[in-house]
Amino acid sequence: MNTSSVLPPLYSYDHNLDSDPEKIGRLRDSSDAADNVEELRRRFDEDGYLYMKGYLNREQVLGARASIVKRLAEAGILDDKEDPMDAICVPDSGYVFKPELADGNEEVHDLLYSGRLTEFYRKFFGESIRHYDFTWLRAIGPGKGTNPHCDLPYMGRGTHKHMTCWMPYGDISFELGGLMILEGSHKRMDLLENYVYRDVDAYCENKPNQKKAADEGGWTFTGTLSHNPPVVRNKFGGRWLTTEFEAGDFLTFGMFTVHASLDNHTENRLRISSDSRYQRASEPIDDRWIGEKPPGHSKAGKRGRVC
Ligand SMILES: O=C(O)CCC(=O)C(=O)O
User: Fold this and answer.
1) Ligand 1 centroid – CA 37 distance (Å)
2) Residue 250 lies in a domain
């Protein structure tokens, strides 16, 4: 693992990130404050995220990885000559977004929705919690990662105080490309307010193009903030913060925090991660993401209005 304060050249969405230490840095590890909820809340308010290094049981996370790679192998995405745990993919696998890898997956569900992780959120929120029933499971092949965005446009119909948990299922080097957070972005409402409250599934039913897109389960607004991480950084002014993740870490952040991911610069390895959501049980929840078969961004999740 690279622990040097000088980061190697890093890329996101095909852009080389400026190596100036005022523009890029490492995530702050908050595992030292794991037992001090007041301090965690203070850091979350200040930073817009908490990076909890080694908070979870590494063996349990690797067990969940085993269950995911088994399914990826069955789907023909892995090179069957290699050890599935290495997640070596067949050529041109691309960005595999496969929430169904989490469906009925006991190992993933136990990790995300019971035990140490849910206890973390219960303490953090200071009351009973609930989580979305939908789990975003990603296996990202060589190529571009995720472009800069906030999560609220995808899940803002209930509370706005819920939190995302980004979970690496294995060690994620800079080359394999993990998540990055734009420092201080959650405080830049001057730059976010015209973007962050838009709902990707809302549409104008009196505009034929928008109605057609909605009827087909498509979007007129994709929720992307930008396709250019360096430009977003220059506009917001903070640093892009990332690290080399290990199985057992998790990164949690709020709905207003701009984030993106590094590109996968390996020759043939998948970066496997999930994102899941947690909130106070007493607060309203976005009904696109709950139930046995959550409607999500499908036609059933669209909301039309005359505009
Ligand atoms: O894993 C990624 O590349 C993107 C994850 C993400 O956008 C999220 O956790 O909200």
Assistant:
1) 25
2) yes
